[in-house]
């Protein structure tokens, strides 16, 4: 764990917390920190490192009753976007890394993702069901611009006429509009854009390496105009940070063509509680206690909430207020809109990658 108080710009987490699976912890001693300050050296390397992995499987069955997906696929583990609140941070500990800075700096790349997907969905026992890209970490994070694994995955879904969902907060999804249009023509794709705030200043401190708000709103509009179904996730809602933006945000994305809006309320499970607490005391010291206390009020007096049924939406007065605001906002700005169900009927005819005549 780092005791360094220097703010790290361009990153969300400001420290590496201890990995719960490690028997030993480490920290930076004052004499080392003083030496770095004197010599002008970095306390720790801030560069992003790519680590190649070769998984045995790529499609994950989702058993949580709180998540609206049956299967997910993540071509990358770790995420350079650096969203301070991200629930996926805890999963980096299973790889032997910290949920803090390591999550943003050490990105695991599943090099054989496309081959594994093709093997899975062409298998005789597989029955078509929507597979969601980015159930854990963003499939359009910065490195995707170079590696194009997500694009190859989408081309594979198109080849086999298989339904796919996408969750992202990166405008890079616009790059793949050609493939998305073809998928949408057969009702095989739905895109969820994550928009947490309309205020760029808030976006920069919450999600330092994500696409700008302007770019995300532009992306919603372009996808909608191309007849690619697009919805928005306002996730998470954080008390006293973006909770006042519900009505204006729903209004704005509805005008851009969004078919629906979903939300979650922030929960700080596992190591994320310590990471978020350290971050907010450095970035918003004047309101840190207020924010942390209100988060606790939503989750039974704790930052940590793992209870199915309540962990995503919370409980209590604040949670009820959020629920009511979304009900009003949807009725006012999204009335009559609904996203079409993804088509699971075509895949069986294309199980070998081409249309079966008989």
TrEMBL record:
Presence of keyword Signal: no
Enumerate the InterPro entries for this protein. Answer: Elp3/MiaA/NifB-like_rSAM, MJ0683-like, rSAM, rSAM_sf
Q: Which domain of life is it from?
A: Bacteria
Domain Radical SAM core, which positions? 65-302
| CDD domains hit by this protein | Radical_SAM
- Pfam families attached to this UniProt entry: Radical_SAM
Cite a single GO MF annotation. catalytic activity
Q: Which PROSITE patterns match?
A: RADICAL_SAM
Q: Where would one find coiled-coil regions in this protein?
A: none
Name of the featured protein? Radical SAM protein
Q: Which organism is it from?
A: Salegentibacter mishustinae
